[in-house]
Specification:
- One of its GO terms (biological process) is cytochrome complex assembly.
- Belongs to the CcmC/CycZ/HelC family.
- The structure is a single chain.
- By secondary structure, the protein is mainly α.
- It has one domain (about 20-45, about 55-185, about 195-245).
- It has helices at about 1-5, 10-45, 55-85, 85-120, 125-145, 150-165, 170-180, 200-230, 235-245.
- Helix 3 (about 55-85) runs parallel beside helix 8 (about 200-230) and helix 5 packs antiparallel against helix 6 (about 150-165).
Length: about 250
């Protein structure tokens, strides 16, 4: 098992194997997102209180889930890079950050749009909203740190440290609705209880969440492969692969 995991730390192995997995995740993500979108927008019943405005949940919740998961994944990859000096982990952490920032912004923006008919305001300094805004700043900070140093290694180490320290914000986001008084609703999904939503409403949401995660995996594989080529372009194995492709 450890041998298999260690193989993914090889730029060549990652580049070759990800080429085989990438199309699968692109196809699955497309299928799930299209299915979830049509199901949620056209066939799921309207909410008895919010009417059709609740349907923004099919973008808001998957984006919020994914944003937090990306930061945790980025922090783990940063830990692997700092402790074991595995270059592919640093490449993966680098390419995750922009998508994480985008997903956090989508979650914040869609939540603000949803807040108008629900709370009567675009924004308030609610515990959940504030901690999500901090998450966006953490993503932007990680991205900025990588370009703030003349040495790529120094930038990678600084960004890795920020990612590992910043991961403490994730449980704050998750439990903010339990620890403080907040207008934000509790978690939509939990591992210990059935969703309060009717089945015909939360099933398309689950499909959308899975579709977003598959999209994240596919995009990360693709962008990490590009980063490998950028850093390893002068290595012999890269030249050999291009020769074989001709």
């Amino acid at each position: 098992m450890w041998t298999f995991i260690h193989k993914w730390g090889s730029p060549k192995w990652f580049y070759v194997m990800s080429a085989k997995l990438q199309p699968l995740f692109w196809m699955v993500s497309l299928l799930l997102i299209v299915t979830g979108t049509v199901w949620g927008l056209a066939f799921a019943p309207a909410d008895y209180q919010q009417g059709d405005s609740f349907r923004i949940i099919y973008v808001h919740v998957p984006a919020a889930f994914l944003a937090q998961s990306i930061f945790v994944s980025m922090a783990l990859a940063s830990l692997v890079f700092v402790v074991w000096k595995i270059k592919v982990a640093d490449m993966a952490a680098k390419v995750m950050a922009p998508l994480g920032a985008v997903m956090t912004f989508v979650a914040l923006f869609s939540g603000a749009v949803w807040g108008v008919p629900t709370w009567g305001t675009w924004w308030m300094w609610d515990a959940r909203l504030t901690s999500m805004l901090i998450l966006l700043f953490l993503f932007l900070g990680v991205i900025a740190l990588r370009g703030a140093f003349a040495s790529r290694d120094s930038g990678s180490k600084a960004a890795s440290v920020l990612a590992m320290v910043g991961v403490i914000n994730i449980p704050i986001i998750k439990y903010s609705v339990d620890w403080w008084f907040t207008l934000h609703q509790p978690a939509t999904f939990t591992l210990t209880s059935r969703p309060a939503m009717p089945t015909e409403m939360w099933l398309p949401l689950l499909v959308m969440v899975l579709g977003f995660y598959c999209f994240f995996i596919a995009l990360t594989l693709m962008r990490t492969r590009n980063e490998i080529l950028r850093r390893e372009i002068n290595k012999r194995w890269v030249m050999d692969l291009f020769q074989e492709a001709r």
